[in-house]
């Protein structure tokens, strides 16, 4: 009948609902993993930047050691 069709249209199959929530949990888990990975990569990037800055400071000649030769 028309009324049963209207009433049943709003009901969701429990299997579909369960699958949907499983997928939501999977997405949330993946999101947490990716955030953790991003934080680790940012930390490594900051460490590498510090190493490069230190290396550049060590390789830069000091003012006393630089002399200009006259032509």
The succession of helices and strands, N to C, reads: HH
Low-confidence sequence ranges? none
Main sheet? none
Average pLDDT, to the nearest integer?
84
As a percent range, the share of strand residues is: under 5%
User: What oligomeric arrangement do these chains adopt?
Assistant: single chain
Shape: rod-shaped
State the secondary-structure class: mainly alpha
Query: How helix-rich are the residues, as a percent range?
Result: over 70%
Structure description:
The protein has helices at 2-9, 14-59. It is mainly α. It has a domain at 13-57. The longest helix has 46 residues, at 14-59.
Secondary-structure map:
Blueprint: H1 2-9, H2 14-59
Features:
single chain; mainly alpha
Short description:
The chain has 71 residues and is mostly helical. It is 76% helix and 0% strand.
């Amino acid at each position: 009948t028309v009324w049963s069709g209207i009433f049943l249209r709003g009901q969701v199959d429990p299997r579909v609902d369960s699958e949907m929530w499983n997928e939501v949990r999977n997405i949330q888990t993946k999101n947490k993993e990716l955030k953790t990975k991003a934080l680790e990569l940012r930390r490594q990037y900051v460490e590498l930047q510090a190493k490069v800055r230190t290396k550049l400071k060590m390789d830069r000649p000091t003012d006393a050691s630089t002399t200009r030769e006259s032509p």
